[in-house]
Structure formats: structure tokens, C-alpha cells
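call fold(seq) -> C-alpha cells
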Amino acid sequence: MGAMGRFIPPDAPKEGVIQGGREWMETILSRFGPVRDRAQNTTTLDFEKPLVELDKRIKEVRKVAEENGVDVSQQILELEARARQLRKETYSRLTPTQRLQVARHPNRPTCLDIILNITDKFVELHGDRAGLDDPAIVCGIGTINGISFMFVGHQKGRNTKENIRRNFGMPQPNGYRKAMRFMRQADKFGLPIITLVDTPGAYAGRKAEELGQGEAIAFNLREMFGLRVPIISVVIGEGGSGGALAIGCANKNLIMENSVYYVASPEACAAILWKTRASAGLATEALRITASDLVKVGVMDVVIPEPLGGAHADPVSAFPMIKAQVLETYAQYEHMSGAEIRLDRYAKFRKLGMFREFIVKGGDWKTATAERNAATGVLTKAGTWAASQAEAHYIEQLVEADEKWERTLADASEWTNKPVQPPGLSRSGIMELAVSSVEARRRKQEAASGGGYRSTATLNA
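ret:
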């Protein structure tokens, strides 16, 4: 209290100290400035400990030099150069197990961190229109350079309390239904969709299964292929199983340099194949879950580089890289029609799993491929090319077996369990019938537009 009984805030300038309003405000705001030193409770991975120790010694040398007034700037520059080189060498030869540790780092940028730092404006949207709102899935509309996008992503927490609320980034069925609700909204209003994948997998609890976890994921997989707007998916941490794929059926799949994408976690894979979680390191290498391996096999399309030391060490530098790659990818689809976008998405997933390798005796498929390409070849009776006479004979045997089966189906009069073959376009006459039906409908429309009347018999004639 002041001398006259007035309440004086503790932050008010003291008597005898002359301060302007600007100086006083800067004094207050200086307490909330950015953190200059690495926090003591920051998680450090085992292979990062030498780097952290070197950074700590550089800070100690700089502090001692400032206290004693000694100029050691040249020595500090040499130590910093050495630290950068050591960090570069360390992160350039990370093993798959170490990259998995980086992808799961608790200080890695989350979905909301990235959205709020690459967008000009962002409005989060909630609810699945069924009375539920899963915090593990974040949805909203944001603008980047004046272009509106619909954002959908998995959200993890920073501490135990947040992770419990976000369910460690593992969505419930209502979370995937919430995601599909806003994807449909984006499709209705022509907004491109950006999905940010960071989940160990869909929640596998009893309640989630009772509420239809499998159905919710399958529904999203089906519906995403029908959307007419471009979908760009970015794996920002770990992408686990169907929980990642449920928002990852995109035209382009991007992945950050130290992220991973897998059908089953290495721990689960080791428990299934080797009956022990101790073999998780072996499973990590066998699964080929790193960004470089995924791009090589065509599962991912583009690797987004990360700052030296990983995105968890310098997230501010990671955000512009993500933003630039997202905009570059969107530019490829900006002028495509809805049908072209859907065909592009279909073609991307249709070619997955196609390999040039084939089984040969001894497993030397490269030599077998070279010999096949160099062969002059022979023709079957029907004119089909084959690399050798033995292969031509094998093809003819397969064709004869198929023809024999077709004759058996057509000529058999009695069956114990008669096979039923569903009609398909490959059967004789189906395409002709479809064409004649379309042609008849067209003639009928022309007759109706001309004002004349023709009977059905005339139209079919």
C-alpha cells in the first residue's frame, strides 16, 4: 500500500527511478523472452550425449571468458565448428533404431506446432456430429500465403497430463469420423487437404473396438479415394499401421527426414516373429521404416529435410522447410480437375506392390532378367512371345487348362455343388450388351428432343 492508502502493483516503477512507459513495459516483457539455454529436463538420446556435452563445455568456456575479460573468441569458433561437424557426422549415419528414437522424441514438433507456425491464420474445428470430439485428432481451416487448406492431424502431448488427454496420439473411432467429416466439408467447398501423421497406431482398447474402430478406418480408406480435392500427407513423427493410413490416402505422401512409417511397431513385430521384444532392433532394420527406404520402394514420394540435429533440436528452422515443400507439392495439383485428382490418387496406390523381380532357381533374378532381355524368343501357337521354348510350352498349358475349365462349366449337366461364376466384363457378350443399351438410350433421347414419337420396338430395331 502507498502512503495515501493506494494499492501499488509490484511491477510499478519504484520512487526515485525515472522510467518512461516504453522502458517499463520492456522491463516487464523481458521476463518472458525466449529460452537461451537448453533446459535441464530436455530429453537427450544416448547418441546425442557427446554433442550435448560439447555444447555444455563451449558455454562454460564462454562464461569464464566473459567473467575474466579474456578474449577466447577464436577458440570458441573452433569448438563450435567442431561441434557442427560432429553433429553432421552423427546424424548422417544414424541407424534405423536411432531414427526411430528421433521420430519418437518428446520434444519433436507436434501437429499444432507445425500448423500454427506455417499458417497465416488458423481456426480449429471440433466434433464428429455424433456428440463426440476426440482430442487425439486436430482439424481446422488455415491459410498459407492466402490459400485456404483443411488441416487434419494426430496430436500428441508434451507431458504426461497432455498425453493422457490426447491419448498419446492414438485416435478413437470418433476421431476418424471427425476427420472424415471435415474432409467431406473440404471436398464440398473445394479446399485442399493437408494431413499431418504422427501416431503409434489407432487405439486398440476394448471400448474402441466396441465402437467400431476397424469400420471407422475402413470407411475413411474408401471415402478418401473419392474426394475431388488434392490430399497432401506429411509424416511428421511416426506413422503406425491403419491409424496412420486412415488419414494418409493422399495424392502425395511426404515424410520428414527422421520420421518413420510402418505396418506394425518394431516391438510388436519382434514379439510376433521372435517371441521377444528384445529383438526390436532387428525388426526395425528388417521392416525398412526409414524415410530413405520408403521413398526407394515408392511408399513415400518426397523426403523433407530437417535442420542439423533434427527437428526437435531446431524446430524454428524446420517449419519453413515443411511449408515450402507443401506449397511446392500443392502447385502440381492446383489446376487439375476433380476427376484428374482422383485418378492420380488411384494410380499412386495401384502401382504399389508391383515388382520386376520374379522367382528363379538359385534366386539370381538379375541374371535371369538379363538373359531374358537378350533372348530372341519364340512364339506360341496363338502368337504370344516367350523367352524360350519351355516357357512357350508352359503358357500353352496354362491356356489349355483355362479353356478346359470353361468347357467343363458350360457342358456339365449335374453338379454336387455347382460353381456360380458372377458376370463380369471379361465374359463374352457383356460389353456388346452394354454398348447396345447405351446406344438405344441415346437414340431415345434424340427422338424425345426432336419432338417425334417412336415406339420401343422401333428404337430397339
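The longest strand covers residues 231-240.
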